[in-house]
Amino acid sequence: MSEMPKTDQLAGKVVLITGGTSGLGRWTTLITAAQGATVIYSGRNAEGAAETDRRLNEAGLKAEYLPHDVTKEDEWQSVMDNVLKRYGRLDGLVNNSGVSRLKPMDQLSLEDLEYLLSVNVDGMFLGTQYAFRVMKMRGGSIVNISALNALRGSPNSTGYGMAKAGTTHLARAAAIEGRKYGIRANAVHPGVLFEDGDKASPGAIALFGEEGAQKFVQFNIDTTPLGRLGHPRDIGTAVAFLLSDASRHVTGTAVSVDGGRMAGEYLHHGIKSQK
To answer: Which residues are catalytic?
Structure first.
């Protein structure tokens, strides 16, 4: 972590990242801070925030944590008031906070669906709405973290896919409405990600068991054109690009950072590249 390269790609920008207390949000916080932004990250998990702070300190980086439940409008108001009071503006919002419940359609309850929609759709809608109010005078960039499930059907993912499809559409709609304010909006669709290379994650082990989790890992390696799993930092660097002025002509897009999985059907049959 201490060797994370630092750049000035986001120097001078104030960026708010939701769900920065774990996973993709934590890595996006680290990478965005390393690229020169003033970063505020939010979330409900104080223990997770302490770990994010530890990693920031280890890398010689800084970011500010704010407690935040994205489903509550009054907390969005409080967070935005805090950002404006401290920094006077907001240049970037990363709508990262999200949840999943993977169940067969006939076992998915209405409560499950409402929960998925509340966090993934309502939370991102509120974030986008409040960001618009703040960004109207100066413009800005909004990035919604969606999922490949938003773009295709997948077993046990009916509710999750519906919710994430909403976040992708929200980015497209925001791109259209943001035109007159200089606000860009895009959605990022992560592929299969593991922090520990080809080792099964605790989540995969909990879902499939030890042996099944490793088979899951290998299957995803074999069916990804690049022949490797992604890492959360791959999403963070893509998000940083979309927040930066280098992407000034990119808006309304659905960007897949997935090693080529959405390019089409692919299955590795043991034929290795010579490169």
So the answer is: 160
Q: Domain of 219?
A: 196-229
Q: What pTM, to 2 d.p., does this model score?
A: 0.91
139-191 tens-digit pLDDT? 999 999 999 988 988 888 888 999 999 999 999 999 999 999 999 999 999 99
**7 domain residue, yes or no:** no
Mark whether 236 and 172 lie in a shared domain.
yes
Torsion, Cα of 24, 247, 117, 194 (10° steps)? -20
Interatomic CA distance for residues 206 and 47, integer angstroms: 21
| Count of CA atoms in the C-beta half-sphere (13 A) of 30 | 28
Strand locations in the chain, DSSP E?
Answer: 14-18, 38-43, 64-67, 92-95, 140-145, 183-190, 254-257
CATH of the domain at 182: 3.40.50.720
